[in-house]
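Tutorial handout. Part one gives the primary structure; part two gives the three-dimensional structure as tokens.
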Amino acid sequence: MRQPNLPAGGTCRCSTTQFEILAPPLMTLACHCVDCQRMCASAFSLGAMIPADGFKIVKGTPVARPLTGSPRHHFFCPICMTLMFTKVEGAEARVNVRATLCRDSSWLTPFIEIMTKDKLPWAVTPAIHSYDAFPSPAEFKRLLAEFAGWSDLS
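Part two.
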């Protein structure tokens, strides 16, 4: 995988809310869960896990719209309602950015795909690893280490 040129800027559809990615991704993924399918109106969402201190909003103020009882807090542009990023309770050290919103997202190749139990039968990604749900904490730690080597192969 090619690394993004940093800082990598991105924007919502109306450009009211803008962000910068300042650090290389910890991992890239495709999520096939029903929530992502519905929020993105697509077969899956594409994201990049970015260290929290490597992500900043540079214009606008995104709004959080968490579902009641969900540990995932989704942030949207308040004007065009573009889903921009997600923060997960218990994983405050990273932000899951919808990296296709970057001005240049050509670097984004999913390393893993998750929630394939909800996958549409025709949906195919180039992900190296596939999981019916979420990887276990031990597996996730191993994947982070493997991704670091994989993403340096550019």
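Part three, for discussion. Residues 8-151 form a domain with the glutathione-dependent formaldehyde- activating enzyme (gfa) fold (CATH 3.90.1590.10). Residues 73 and 95 are 10 Å apart (CA to CA).
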